[in-house]
Write a structure and sequence with these properties.
796 residues; 17% strand; Nuclear Transport Factor 2, Chain: A; alpha+beta; Elastase, domain 1; 26% helix; 29 strands; single chain
């Protein structure tokens, strides 16, 4: 019997950040194949722009301001200048409070949300990057038309959007599927065959449920309940529940408990119409609902109109959705993003460093090294209190723990701390506080055996459970190391990182990573859910039944790093409070690609090697991607136009191409600047300053620290580029943001190295795409040209 793609493809995206979607997923409880249903699609914004150089911004008429002027004030002048081109009434904006100044680069990242008639335009985003009085780059997807009349008004004509979706369904039939062997593993590199009938049936069912669902409505056009039940009918993976909602709509509507949400403070221009809705079928927490506008294509498809929608935040067992559903009946889902991707000084806690028997940092998996005893290597800047301390006020367990007097810190002896809560999740549920995790006692020595025995497949799960202490300790160690590394490259509190307590350094708190080992919701996969800053990220790591004994994804660092990189890229792109910027198409694909690139860079060595993703867990030498990552075009021929090939429609395949391009870029930087044996910057001095050592160049006062070596520099430029790029970026915009990041960091000394490296894989200055669609379609042309300043005169 053949098994097919593990992630159900929904037209318009193939989204959902699920690692290794080419592997079949099955339940540990019944061993039956399952698919995690995920929705992800939305309208294209033909008017959206991204300008990545100050020159183009000045050419358009905006001149630099006084370098001593407050960046937010400069942003207001700039926004007013942009909005002055429209004389329509009712258009305004708010500067989001997740805007911040990056202390390492001096760039102020200002995030702006458009308001129309006092309501947010949910996809009306502007990100403005300012330094020394100058707008150095910006992205803008503000609505440009005439504001509709305030109130519920009338619905926008949906025929154009519906036509686009119908074409998407048709286009999906041109895909080809990988060949699978009898064990359910992909046989990549072999001749591909048409998509099997079973898969097409799944695809067609998703098309029908998403775009042709039954229509629900009540007598009140402003009743939020019918729109929410319309979404839940589509979103639930439970066909019986969907039918029940359809047959008993009024009964389900009556059960919903709708309560208004009151705001103590408000923007003068902003109107809040928000509700909390409880007893929602298939939701695990109350649903947040608010009125907003969203942009949909006009009849010609060359501009957008505004549609009044209900915005829902819906947390389910396997999904965490941010959805926009038309406020008018018949209710239609316009866009949906799945966030699941498959102070005052405080005294420091008394800290007894822990010890872990783990595959140490840089050892990717059991096939390339042995375990070793490692002293808790927490970074004193990223994790000042260590990995096993958490303030009582921010501790989800504190209600069940007796607090000593006025103690601020709780010191733990388990895999529970300020950055990460690691535990088993055999039941596959959302509960985590009371789940099992190892307790190492006062010594905090997490030293456990790992020697799984060969068993029958039916006994594989029970054998793996014997080593849960080893597994959870490893997951805790790797996740904390990644937290500290990302912090040192700029993913800090203000940028939206994951911590329960932020040490008075900005950002929103109470969002440490919930890291579940042996998650009972599947096999042969992993995923990460990224809500906005201030809500816990959730990572689910699975066992892999691709070999006997079963292999544990928690022990393959590349998989863990890939998943944590979703939280990084989603929080940095478009700002910490907007988790909807990498939902589908090229932007969603790059979300996958950054994870592969960062994981591969972390495991790399000074002596160059090619690397596969997921090779150990999947028990496949070439891993779970179409190609291993290599600078050799015979080994990995991926170029920009590869995205047009059959089978490259989904976010993981798109991500492979982006990761390969970044891998080539990083190797060219290494050729120029050399290689650092450690990606971790030096420990800060007592006064908080960072010694350059052999890691950073010596920087002039007030200038950003610049990594000396190519591999560390490439990581820095990629993260800085995420901060500069617009919401919903494409390959061109992400490329330009990295080049802009180098201009900010080094004055542009790597301008030609970067352009030549991108051009090597078809993403040169003359690359183009025609007929681009939101889900990643279009006709691409490779570009191998570079700017004139980088062209070599062969006649000289």
């Amino acid at each position: 019997m053949r098994h097919f793609l593990s992630t159900a493809i929904l037209v318009g995206s193939l989204a959902g950040h699920v690692y290794g979607h080419r592997q079949p997923v099955s339940s540990p409880h019944d061993q039956a194949p399952v698919r995690r249903k995920t929705l992800g699609f939305g309208p294209r914004h033909p008017h959206a722009v991204y300008h990545s150089t100050p020159y183009t911004i000045q050419t358009n008429g905006f001149t630099p301001q006084d370098p001593y002027m407050e960046p937010i004030s400069i942003a207001r002048v700039f926004i007013d200048d942009v909005l002055s081109t429209s004389s329509a009434e009712g258009l305004s904006y708010k500067i989001r409070d997740d805007s911040y100044t990056d202390k390492s680069t001096g760039v102020t990242h200002v995030y702006v949300r458009q308001l129309v008639n006092g309501l947010e335009v949910a996809d009306g985003d502007m990100n403005i990057n300012i330094k020394d009085g100058m707008v150095i780059s910006y992205g803008n997807s503000f609505f440009k038309g005439v504001a509709p009349a305030a109130g519920f008004g009338h619905p926008v004509n949906f025929s154009k959007l519906q036509d686009v979706r119908v074409e998407a369904c048709k286009d999906a039939h041109s895909l080809t599927a990988p060949t699978w062997n009898q064990d359910g593993q992909t046989v990549l590199g072999s001749a591909q065959e048409p998509i099997p009938a079973e898969f097409l049936k799944t695809l067609d069912n998703n098309c029908r449920t998403a775009f042709s669902a039954p229509e629900f409505s009540t007598d009140d056009p402003a009743d939020v309940r019918s729109a929410l039940l319309q979404f839940m009918h589509t979103a639930t993976p439970n066909a019986k529940l969907a039918a029940d909602i359809e047959n008993k709509f009024e009964e389900y509507a009556e059960k919903l408990v709708v309560a208004p949400v009151h705001h103590l403070t408000s923007n003068d221009n902003e109107m809040h119409v928000e509700f909390s809705i409880d007893s929602v079928p298939d939701a695990v927490n109350p649903v947040k609902a608010r009125l907003a506008y969203i942009q949909v294509p006009n009849a010609a498809g060359d501009a957008t109109e505004l549609q009044l929608v209900w915005k829902f935040e819906v947390e389910m067992e396997d999904n965490w959705y941010d959805a926009a559903v038309t406020a008018h009946a018949p209710h239609k889902i316009v866009s949906v993003v799945d966030w699941a991707a498959d102070s005052a000084p405080i005294p420091a806690p008394e800290n007894v460093p822990a010890t872990y028997n783990v595959f140490a940092w840089g050892v990717n998996d059991p096939s390339v090294g042995e375990r070793s005893l490692e002293k808790e290597p927490y970074d004193t800047l990223a994790s000042p209190a260590g990995w096993h301390a958490i303030p009582y006020a921010h501790d989800p367990q504190s209600t069940n723990i007796r607090r000593k007097g006025g103690d601020f810190w709780r010191n733990t002896t388990t895999t529970w701390g300020n950055n990460v809560f690691a535990q088993e999740n055999w039941e596959g549920a959302n509960n985590f506080v009371s789940n099992y995790r190892p307790d190492a006692g006062k010594s905090k020595v997490f030293d456990y055996p790992y020697d799984p025995k060969l068993t029958d497949k039916a006994d594989g799960l029970e054998e793996a459970k014997k080593y849960i202490n080893t597994t959870v300790a490893q997951l805790f160690y790797t996740t904390n190391r990644v937290h500290d590394l990302f912090y040192r490259y700029g993913f800090n509190e203000e940028a939206g990182n994951f911590q329960q307590y932020n040490f008075g350094r900005g950002g929103r708190e109470n969002d440490g990573v919930i890291a579940n080992a042996h998650d009972g919701s599947g096999y042969n996969n992993a995923n990460f859910m990224t809500p906005p800053d201030g809500q816990n990220g959730r990572m689910r790591m699975y066992l892999w039944n691709t070999a006997l004994p079963f292999r544990d994804g928690d022990l393959e660092a590349g998989i863990v790093i890939h998943e944590l990189s979703h939280g990084l890229s989603i929080r940095l792109t478009g700002g910490p409070l907007n988790s909807n910027c990498l939902g589908w198409g090229e932007s969603g694909g790059m979300g996958e690609g950054w994870g592969d690139f960062i994981a591969t860079t972390i495991r790399s060595n000074k002596e160059y090697s090619d690397y596969a993703m997921g090779a150990w867990a999947a028990n496949r030498e070439d891993g779970i991607r179409n190609y291993i990552y290599s600078t050799n075009t015979t080994v990995n021929p991926s170029v920009y136009k590869t995205l047009d090939k059959p089978g490259y429609w989904g976010v993981h395949a798109i991500g492979e191409v982006w990761a390969e391009i970044l891998w080539v870029v990083s190797q060219r930087l290494i050729e120029k600047h050399g290689y650092s044996e450690s990606l971790f910057p030096p420990t800060p001095r007592e006064d908080g300053t960072i010694p350059p050592g052999d890691f950073y160049r010596t920087a002039a006062a007030g200038k950003p620290l610049v990594p000396k070596h190519g591999n560390s520099l490439s990581i820095q430029l990629v993260l800085n580029g995420m901060k500069l790029q617009p919401c919903r970026p494409n390959f061109f915009q992400a490329r330009d943001a990295i080049i802009s990041a180098d201009n900010v960091l080094t004055g542009g000394e790597n301008f030609c190295i970067l352009w030549n490296a991108f051009a090597e894989r078809g993403l040169g200055s003359d690359a183009k795409i025609e007929g681009q669609t939101p889900w990643g379609g279009g006709i691409r042309t490779n570009g191998y040209a570079v700017p004139a300043a980088c062209q070599v005169d062969d006649s000289a």
